[in-house]
Design goal:
This protein is α/β, with parallel strands linked by helices. It is built from 11 helices and 14 strands. 32% of the residues lie in helices and 27% in strands.
Length: 331
């Protein structure tokens, strides 16, 4: 399991004044003018929110090209994971290896905003899908897309098939009751500020693999997906190097990079389940999505279309399954 949250970059200390009813007055009606509020001057930790600009760079027909992909608000920390996860979920890249490098665009990184502008250079020969870029910008600058259009756009991005007979009754329903507490134990920024969302990735045995936090729900998911893709790429690279020692003859030396991990994965999010969260889940090849809040109608439609198990209102007492109950084992 991995969580590299750095509170010194993700939070700030601010001054505040609190007003609270004295303990001796707890049994009094709060509307009673005789109740005295205790005034206290102290400090508080608040979550940092700063813009993240992502610029893409690639070479097409011998011509260098650059395009600003996104300017989004996020909590600083794990920016590279966030970028990889975002590019993957939007269909810009298919593999971690499509990215040559991720670096700060500013030379003076000691400045307060020195890590807010990132340059992504794609690998030689790779050209990003500009239609995906335009679709991303349109989606996040307007709410005018209907559900049918959104689902069709998702179909164009991926052909992933999440249905597998090996996943039938693969997850114990009792183990799902433990999810929230497992992620909550990793939410250090929430302990400090109470102002962030969390996302966590689990394997089939409900072992926590990655857990990250961010002021944005979508960003927390992108960080988790980016961390998972990074780890998978490292494992595949190692496997390819071992394979090369055995045989130097390979019809497709990059085949390991595009191979799908057949294992069942589960994503937990701390808030409600929107269509965008389901989209990121599908693009990452994750079969089960669990939220502590409610799913939207479009999220349920997408779950049914791609056959992912969608669970809402998860707690230590129970949960609701909106699709994909066949993956759960209540025996």
């Amino acid at each position: 399991m991995e969580n590299r949250s750095k509170a010194e970059h993700s939070t700030k200390t601010v001054n505040k004044i609190t007003y609270a009813i004295e303990h001796s007055a707890d049994d009094l009606c709060v509307n009673n003018s005789a109740v005295t509020l205790q005034r206290t001057i102290c400090t508080d930790a608040v979550i940092v929110e700063q813009p993240l600009q992502i610029t893409l760079s690639w070479c097409e027909n011998g011509v260098a090209k650059n395009k600003i992909f996104s300017i989004t608000m996020r909590t600083p920390g794990q920016d590279k994971f966030l970028i990889i996860g975002l590019l993957h979920s939007e269909g810009i890249i298919k593999n971690f290896a499509d990215v040559e490098s991720i670096s700060s665009e500013l030379h003076d990184t000691s400045a307060e905003d020195g890590q807010n502008e990132w340059l992504i250079e794609f690998s030689p020969g790779f050209t990003p899908n500009l239609a995906s870029l335009e679709r991303y910008q349109m989606t996040y600058s307007s709410c005018g897309l209907c559900g049918a259009t959104s689902l069709k756009a998702l179909q164009l991005k991926t052909q992933v098939n999440l249905s597998s007979s090996k996943h039938k009754k693969a997850i114990s329903v009792n183990s799902l009751l433990l999810l929230s507490n497992k992620m909550r134990a990793q939410q250090k920024l929430f302990d400090l500020t109470g102002g962030v969302h969390g996302a966590a990735l689990f394997d089939q045995r409900v072992t926590l693999l990655h857990s990250y936090e961010d002021i944005g729900r979508h960003n927390a998911v992108d960080k988790v997906v980016g961390a998972y893709l990074s780890l998978q790429n490292a494992k595949q690279t190692s496997a390819r190097e071992c394979e090369a020692k055995v045989s130097t003859d390979s019809d497709n030396p990059n085949s390991l990079l595009v191979a799908k991990d057949p294992s069942l994965l589960l994503l937990l999010v701390s808030g409600r389940i929107s269509f965008e969260i389901v989209q990121k889940t599908i693009m990452a090849g994750i079969s089960i999505l669990v939220g502590v809040g409610a799913p939207s109608d479009l999220a349920i439609q997408a779950a049914k279309q791609f056959d992912i198990t969608l669970i809402g209102f998860n707690s230590a007492k129970g949960f609701n399954v909106y699709h994909g109950d066949w993956r759960l084992n209540n025996g």
